[in-house]
Amino acid sequence: MKPAKPVKAETTQRSMRAATLAEIAREAGVSAPTVSKVLNGRADVAPATRTRVEELLRAYGYHRRRSEAARSPLIDLVFHELESAWAMEVIRGVEKVARDEGLSVVLSESAGRLTPGRTWADQVAARRPHGVILVLSDLDDSQRALLTSRSIPFVVLDPAGDPGADVPSIGATNWQGGVAATRHLVELGHVRIGAISGPSRMMCSRARVDGYRAALETAGLPVDPELIKAGNFHHEAGHRLGLELLRGPDRPTAVFTGNDLQALGLYEAARELGLRIPEDLSVVGFDDLPVARWVGPPLTTVRQPLMEMAEAAARLVLDLGRADRAPGATRVELATSLVVRSSTGAPPA
Amino acid sequence: MKPAKPVKAETTQRSMRAATLAEIAREAGVSAPTVSKVLNGRADVAPATRTRVEELLRAYGYHRRRSEAARSPLIDLVFHELESAWAMEVIRGVEKVARDEGLSVVLSESAGRLTPGRTWADQVAARRPHGVILVLSDLDDSQRALLTSRSIPFVVLDPAGDPGADVPSIGATNWQGGVAATRHLVELGHVRIGAISGPSRMMCSRARVDGYRAALETAGLPVDPELIKAGNFHHEAGHRLGLELLRGPDRPTAVFTGNDLQALGLYEAARELGLRIPEDLSVVGFDDLPVARWVGPPLTTVRQPLMEMAEAAARLVLDLGRADRAPGATRVELATSLVVRSSTGAPPA
Fold first, then answer.
1. Do A74-172+307-332 and A174-305 share a fold?
2. Using an 8 Å Cβ cutoff, are A283 and A343 in contact?
3. Minimal CA separation from A108 to chain B, in Å
4. Is the ipTM, as predicted for this complex, more than 0.85?
5. What are the residue boundaries of the HTH lacI-type domain, all occurrences included (chains A, B) (predicted)?
6. Which residue among A116, A174, A321, B333 is least crowded, i.e. fewest CB within 10 A of its CB?
7. What pLDDT score was predicted for residue A68?
8. Which H helix or E strand runs over B256?
9. What's domain B74-172+307-334's architecture?
10. Quick one: angle between helices B260-272 and B235-247, nearest 10?
């Protein structure tokens, strides 16, 4: 049985009379309070009963009327992983909107899995937040159905996979950023330009490298697959792959690193090999974390407006929960912009 | 009327029969359910009634029996400010323990005030978390009484003020860290050693500078007040005060910066003045944020085990909430340690 997707359920409810809680209880052969308990994520329901009720809720595209759902003054914010300073910018953006609205932020980490665990979804159902923001993470179909049946809206921030047109999401113009970073290097006179990408399963990282390729091709420069390394957005990858790129016989004179942490790893690789930045090697990052201004030399990078994106995601998810304020677009990409500092210059003669 | 402090209330409850909810209701001239509403942070109670009930709860050192208080699977984590990477380490530590215990973390920022707002305390009372962890922040007496009367334990992490002996808290050996940083510079041969401290209202920042002084004095070196600047733990202060220190006629050959972000600001000041690190200037930070390894040159710093401290705070607050597991010590200082990297060396000849 294919579970209802959010938008689908919305349509269903408008076009035909939705099943009531009492009808679902009757069909499941349980009492209405038992169905309520399942909806509220209570633990005192037998697993088999719970599964049966959830299936019927999904099959009927049931979703709780908003007035029924006494919501807690909370927003759930779920991270794929809480590593980097990246996460901090997002937390601050969501926290800002939450504070303005008198809400608190519940933080979870899906601990490296790209969809948060089942227990997590039950907990969310039990605490009934105003909305859920997923960072670089997505829900599986049953989790979506679970949130939809409780009228808990959700928004994906900077999707790693392809969230589908029916999932509200906020991103940045990653492809455009890859173009701007690479074009800047081309304009400085670089011809051999390397790239260290993020993981290829993340759409944002593919988009950045595609932008890099497009800039090279439109400038009439060859794309050398030897100069493109697949990283993982961590400092260590920038260091390791940086050494690979820089130790070759015909090393690049510039590298676009896909994010700032990999740029810092590349800085370390350059230091180890005695290469000066920008005299021997130009480096462009992506993100514009606070640290980009503080390293030596200050890093030229593509600014991703992380805090503003997080604010936009928080506002969108709250709007989705308000019957009276239908949001306009449910897929928004905020613009990236190149910030030129001191890590880029003309190629060595 | 002096409100009961946590430990005090504990003693009171053990040594004499506590007032019941019904008795408090009678004395306040309201119904028992109204007292319950106040305890649960419900909004539908007249402000005057609420104040009267809160006063009686405090006067009687009332606190809700644990079995009465159906707690939510949450831990509250309150930051003074969410700036720096510092916060991220703490969040990760608390999140780790929370995940192990099946709890979620609610994050708030007291937005620059050193005690979180009154509304915040009401929200916490309403959501009934397992405990509250305050980072560089403290509660006023009425907030303490409010949490105590709801049996919501709290722990202060790395207290900024003096939390008092009756407040459970986790810190680090800041003074010892200041000694280790400065002694390292003395052993390298430095004589003119400057310091950029954090704000003097924070005990941790006072302790670090006191350690610096103690190390100089025990080495028989003079303490020059001109070489001690009061910063605020931000990058900008490190830069600004670094320029002040380095532009003087008899500039220091080494600086202990109080934290890592100020060290990065000092790096920038040195770059602007054409001073090389460590050839012309040695720098020691404090914290050992991830970025300390990534800057050029990698920063010698005092490692503060932030994640472990946050884990210890989370475990302590959960233990405080368990009748069956009385925690041993309620003031713990985890050890700091010097991490020598490449930003320190012998003074210029």
1. yes
2. yes
3. 6
4. no
5. 19-73
6. B333
7. 44
8. strand B254-256
9. 3-Layer(aba) Sandwich (3.40)
10. 50
